[in-house]
């Protein structure tokens, strides 16, 4: 069927469309209907079905006779190790780990935090939770103890599954002390922590609370799959919002199984048995959907890659992994490709490998700049598909449905809306604008299956953050336009979220941290253009009257503060001391104008600016650290 027919069918009769897609999932009890309208613009999918996520990702493939097929290929250039787990082995390991959780009193609905690097056990941990109906929340390793503590307090886990350490180029990330620190900071305490001891660092276990990952599994019966209701949360994944408090995006079980399974053929164009690789991290939504769940649900082989695009050991790592493991479809962030290109602009490394297995490259997580797309398609000689989505949706809002009908690529556009997403561009009053005109990107409700029905413990915040701006629509937080052919263009965020190396960060959260510095009276954090990472955060701080310590000292304290409170992932390296911040007469900081000055872009003098002269001061200050020099 052509894309147009599929898309139109999904909007004209979502009930039939998604009930048909649901047939590819193995249910303990089939849902009686697809969409459940809960009133006040709240919806759920497949709510009265009974299903298990782990059964669909693992057991059913073993039962179908595919137990000997590789499920997970672990390739870790950073530790120099490789291994493969078949579906049958994965089943045994997941059932055993789930058994250990049950033995510790963890059951359906209990929350479990997972704090792990890119090792197969991270996926086993997620699947073990899904097996017994526990709700996992994976926390990315690059966050500081404080961020982990915030998540512990918000979702109140009964258990935490963690590794002794992670490994970054040149240094070991001591997970266990970070975990201990977070538990110390948090008000809530988990009853038990299961610690995977990695050979690179053995952690000290806290008696009475910590258990060794493997010892905890000894002598306990393996756990069976527990059927859960379709609307049962599979996981909570925290993501950045406008303020310091992260948003706990809830992923409903059945919707995510149905939608993710649909995407594997229709978007990523792989068949069961094919090798699929998403080079991301389990701590991000890409890792949840496309390292763990979707490839396994669909019966593919997934690659768990513990390394970086460059430096582990060189800019040919991606090409080696693709060639060595016969990867069909490869997914990464544009930043990663930019990093490879910077190191190896002529693509010398690529020539060392036979990449005839590769059929397409998929990019997401941030804007894919045309230069990067062109470079990658020349180098790899396969189509490069940009696609746009968010933690909240869990799968593509706009992409190229290459597996049903590959549409012509228009560079700069992630292509067209996927089934179930009625994407509209709205003006400030909520009226659709004409093609080619910029506006807020919104999706007419209901959103399709797999997308967030609410935020964990924060229904009012969910409504306020996403549903209030345009009644009847989900507000994506992105601005952009649609052209005459229905191709979407994503231009910018409409809120204080920035995107650094494909990582979503809140400038508001960084401002909250800087404001705690005793010498900082006022501050603003903005996202300025970065050639490698897309954006990078820059802090402007005004000091309290009377403070006359060296600015360099204050600057490095600010950098350290953000690293300690938010984590290295914030990549906050620059704080600039300024006399005053540019503001409107009503006191609103003109962050957008600062970004334009730093990036040497034209801007219109804001009519409401308090004192236009301040912009020259800011420009001069920015020039001292290398910005605003166009
Ligand atoms: N655990 C602990 N620390 C981590 C981490 C993890 N899992 N991941 C990153 N960090 C640290 C890094 O070591 C770095 O620390 P540093 O400031 O001491 O150097 C910091 O967080 C910033 O990391 P990052 O922004 O990733 O920059 P980098 O310079 O280490 O690497 C790239 C640059 C482009 C190679 C890297 O960002 C990359 O691979 N990006 C791909 C992005 C991606 O996959 N995004 C997921 C969405 S699809
Ligand atoms: P995250 O929730 O971390 O996946 O971040 C989602 C946000 O990243 C989106 O709302 C966009 O702002 C941005 N983003 C993701 N993919 C793309 C893309 N293909 N093009 C432009 N922006 C993107």
Summary keywords:
alpha/beta, Rossmann fold, GMP Synthetase, Chain A, domain 3, seven-stranded mixed sheet, five-stranded parallel sheet, 32 strands, binds coenzyme A
Task: Summarize the structure in words.
With 630 residues, the chain is an alpha/beta fold. 30% of the residues lie in helices and 25% in strands. Strands 6-5-18-17-19-20-21 form a seven-stranded mixed β-sheet, sandwiched between helices. A five-stranded parallel β-sheet has the order 8-7-9-12-13, sandwiched between helices. A four-stranded antiparallel β-sheet has the order 24-25-26-27. Helix 3 (53-66) packs parallel to helix 9, helix 4 (87-103) packs across helix 5 and helix 6 packs across helix 7 (175-185). It is globular and about 70 Å long. 54% of the residues are buried. The structure holds coenzyme A and adenosine monophosphate. Residues 239, 285, 364-368, 386-388, 390-391, 414, 476-478, 490, 493, 499, 504 line the site of adenosine monophosphate.
